[in-house]
Structures are given as structure tokens and as C-alpha cells.
Write a structure and sequence with these properties.
The complex is a heterodimer of chains A (125) and B (107). Chain A is built from no helices and 13 strands. Chain A has 125 residues and is mostly beta strands. In chain A, the strands form 3 sheets. In chain A, strands 2, 4, 5, 6, 9, 12 and 13 form a 7-stranded mixed sheet that branches. A 4-stranded antiparallel sheet of chain A has the order 1-3-8-7, with no helix packed on it. A two-stranded antiparallel ribbon of chain A has the order 10-11. In chain A, a hairpin with a 2-residue loop joins strand 10 and strand 11. In chain A, 38% of the residues are buried. In chain B, the strands form 2 sheets. In chain B, strands 2, 4, 5, 6, 9, 10 and 11 form a 7-stranded mixed sheet that branches. In chain B, strand 7 and strand 8 form a beta hairpin. With 107 residues, chain B is mainly beta. The chains are: A mainly beta (125), B mainly beta (107). At the A-B interface, strand 5 and strand 12 of A face strand 4, strand 5, strand 9 and strand 10 of B.
């Protein structure tokens, strides 16, 4: 069964760091863009970052630029999110997802077809 | 960043009702839009991509339409298991942005 499993969440103090992992067994991980999405308590979904198949392109939402780093290890079928200088507003459930990247009419469309169950990050003193 | 505005923010409907959710982009995004269903404690689920393409395995009562700035998600006959929050997501440019969500409840 194709699945994603996040880990690494927990309680951290403001200004601290945390590294999230997303294990991706069951499919050819190196063939897909991957993303992180989060949901703060009582809020909606927020796209955080994505990374190309070979790691050569990465994009971030403005609120995490310079603090978060998305990376991947295709040999280990794993995606990561290094989070530094954490703030209270980073408290959220973090999800990883696969982007099937559908191509039609000279356009690539995001297709986030496989998701993990999420890992909880709490930033609090 | 492109702003995605969804309405209504919540609705309550009976089983069998036709339900329509609207998403409006702050600028034209062609048909670069997806719809996701999210239930509490669960992973989000893809319903529609490229504005109107139904994801494999998703019931045909779900459909999407629109292009440019205005998009709709329609549930042709609401079922009890459709109670969830629904989000649109633009993939026209970076950063990707979600709408604020529409909570759908079944009476």
C-alpha cells in the first residue's frame, strides 16, 4: 500500500529547532515532487514548501523563508523539514504529501494524491 | 501571493441535497486549481485537480468547474460521509495558497 509516515514532531521552546521526517515506502520516491502542508489549531490548511524530484528546486511560503529548509534523501525514500527559530505561530499539524504532477495542455498541475497522517509540532515555553 | 476566497464559510444541508462551494482567486489562474476534503484527525484527500478532473476513486457526485478567477465544487447529492471541510488550492504560482475552507455539515 502506498503511504507516507511523518515523524519528529513534539514540544519545543520558542527559538528552538525541530526536524520532521516523512518516510515514503511503496512507490518510486525519486520520481515525485514532495510537499509539506500544515494546519494550525482552529485554522485552515497552509502550504509550506515543496521540493523537486532531484532536490534542485525548492519553494517556500514567505512566513518560513530563512527559517525552514526542505530536503530529501532519495536513497532513503525520505523527505525532511528542518525548522529553526521556531515561533508560537508555527504550532500546527504538519503533513507531507506526494505531488503526482499531472501534465496536460503544456501545463503541469499539482496533484497531491498521497498524504501522511500528520505530526504535531507545539512551540511553547 | 494570490488570495483564494471561498464562500460560504460553512453550510448545513440535508442528505440528497445539491451543494455548491465557490472559490474566487485574486487574479486569473487559468484552471490551475484543486479541491481537497479534510476531516478532523484525518489526512486531507484530493477530490479534483486542474479545476475539473476527478481524482481516481472519488465518487462521481463530486465535480469541479471554472476557469480564470471563479471556480465551483459541486456535490450533486450530499451523503452523510461528505461532512468535512473543503479547501480550494491554487497551483498557478508560488507560494501555493489555499482558500480558508468551507465547513459542510449534514442535517
Amino acid at each position: 500500500e502506498v503511504q507516507l509516515v511523518e515523524s519528529g514532531g513534539g514540544l519545543v521552546q520558542p527559538g528552538g529547532s525541530l526536524r520532521l521526517s516523512c518516510a515514503a515506502p511503496g512507490f518510486t520516491f525519486s520520481s515525485y515532487w514532495m510537499i509539506w502542508v500544515r494546519q494550525a489549531p482552529g485554522k485552515g490548511l497552509e502550504w509550506v514548501a515543496n521540493i523537486k524530484e532531484d532536490g534542485s528546486e525548492k519553494y517556500y511560503v514567505d512566513s518560513v523563508k530563512g527559517r525552514f529548509t526542505i530536503s530529501r534523501d532519495n536513497a532513503k525514500n525520505s523527505l525532511y523539514l528542518q525548522m529553526n527559530s521556531l515561533r508560537a505561530e508555527d504550532t500546527a499539524v504538519y503533513y507531507c504529501a506526494r505531488d503526482r504532477n499531472y501534465f496536460a495542455s503544456d501545463t503541469y498541475y499539482d496533484v497531491f494524491d498521497i498524504w501522511g497522517q500528520g505530526t504535531i509540532v507545539t512551540v511553547s515555553s | 501571493a494570490i488570495q483564494m476566497t471561498q464562500f460560504p464559510s460553512s453550510l448545513s444541508a440535508s442528505v440528497g441535497d445539491r451543494v455548491t462551494i465557490t472559490c474566487r482567486a485574486s487574479q486569473g489562474i487559468r484552471n490551475d486549481l484543486g479541491w481537497y476534503q479534510h476531516k478532523p484527525g484525518k489526512a486531507p484527500k484530493l477530490l479534483i485537480y486542474a479545476a475539473s478532473s476527478l481524482q481516481s476513486g472519488v465518487p462521481s457526485r463530486f465535480s469541479g468547474s471554472g476557469s480564470g478567477t471563479d471556480f465551483t465544487l459541486t456535490i450533486s447529492s450530499l451523503q452523510a460521509e461528505d461532512s468535512a471541510t473543503y479547501y480550494c488550492l491554487q497551483d498557478y504560482n508560488y507560494p501555493r495558497t489555499f482558500g480558508q475552507g468551507t465547513r459542510v455539515e449534514t442535517k
